[in-house]
Amino acid sequence: MKDWMNPERLNRLKGSAILLALSAAVGAIAGVLTAVFGHGVLAMTEVREAYPLLMVLLPAGGALICLVYRRWGEECRRGMGLVFDAVEGRRKDVPTRLIPLAVGSTWIGHLLGASVGREGVAVQISTAAASLLTPGLDNPRNKRSLLMAGVAAGFAGLFRTPLAAVFFALELFHTGVMEYESLLPALVAALTASAVSGALGVNPPVSGLSAAVPAFTVETIIGLVVLGIAAGLVGHLFVALLHGLHHRLEQWLPNPYLRIVLVGALVALFGLVTGGRYNGLSEEITAIALAGGQLYAWDWLAKLCLTAVCLAAGFQGGEVAPLFTVGAALGAVLAGPLGLPVELAAAMAYAAVFSAGTNTFAAAILVGLELFGGQYFACLFLVCTVAYACNGSHSIYPQCPLNYGEEKR
């Protein structure tokens, strides 16, 4: 009894209770923010699809985005870089003004046809909200855990995959090392955010899978392994292209206005020629792949390249949703040669390209389990393991401690 009354122990318990309460608050706030943001993205997409000629305004929209950031939040252009700096203690917080800047610029991008995602912004705005509550914590480790809970809440609120969101946050900052002291706060925040956003009408990006679970014959195992290799290489390609284009475009077009305007013009022209197939979220490609439909052999590559050039030029959004689309399209194209059902291959590559692009393992498997069902665990584990092993320790997030030229721990 005396041990329980130890002042130091009581202080730790009090700190943990406050942390969990604040994590729930972060989850609730993130649920509202991601719901508003997510509904806005879908609304912008509907308007653009109804009026495809809006894409001719993409260069002007890019110039507006550049102007707004340069005038009111130049440092906010770093996006996920600010999240990494805040979690790692290199800065005090994620600035609150990032919320309207990131949300507004992403809405403009989707309205006018930029090929970008949304999860990066959801994570950023949720972590910015978590930063507002960190003054209520004295322990630096608890502050770090609350910011990581913000990351989990943003992912969970947008995609409605709370378990994957928890492990995404735990894996993101120290590849290969789980920070289990942040597990419970991240779980509380993720579950709360998912429940709140769900109550506000946010649905998972896909709903279930009808493919039968295959018998693990030698042919099936070989097919899944090859699919994992392909997913790992494609994830690696996306990372290399994204970072390489960012560096090259800054060299070739040092003026940020000229850079985003020229890229916007090229993307708009490409979109008008292709009927907007690869602009915005391109969710139709994902839906066709997961339903076992026919896709063009180059769909995955076109989406990959267009997203990389848009993000490298300065358009705001995210990389994860495009990774999902690229993966689903890749799996659908490879299903026939590998002797796999189209729906199954699309779903497995959906998760595996995400694994390779983000350099996460458990999060990718859990994304597949939460979206497609637990019966596919063995297939997901095999394909994601191979993809993770083939990605070369690279990540779409350049701030990750392990990236180009470094080995996994």
Largest sheet: none
By DSSP, the count of extended strands is: 0
Number of helices: 16
Shape: globular
- Can you tell me the number of structural domains? 2
Question: What is the helical fraction, as a range of percent?
Answer: 55-70%
CATH architecture descriptor of the largest domain:
Orthogonal Bundle
Oligomer: single chain
Summarize the structure.
With 409 residues, the protein is an all-alpha fold.
Task: Please give the structural blueprint.
Layout: H1 7-50, H2 58-72, H3 80-87, H4 98-112, H5 119-133, H6 140-159, H7 162-172, H8 183-199, H9 218-252, H10 256-273, H11 283-290, H12 299-313, H13 320-338, H14 342-358, H15 362-372, H16 377-390
Helix pairs in contact: 1-4, 1-5, 1-6, 1-8, 2-4, 2-10, 4-5, 5-6, 6-7, 6-8, 7-8, 7-15, 9-12, 9-13, 9-14, 9-16, 10-12, 11-13, 12-13, 13-14, 14-15, 14-16, 15-16
Can you walk me through this structure?
The chain is mainly α. The protein folds into two domains: 7-199, Orthogonal Bundle (Clc chloride channel), CATH 1.10.3080; 218-390, Orthogonal Bundle (Clc chloride channel). The protein has helices spanning 7-50, 58-72, 80-87, 98-112, 119-133, 140-159, 162-172, 183-199, 218-252, 256-273, 283-290, 299-313, 320-338, 342-358, 362-372, 377-390. The protein is globular and about 65 Å long. The protein starts with 6 loop residues before the first helix and ends in a 19-residue tail after the last helix.
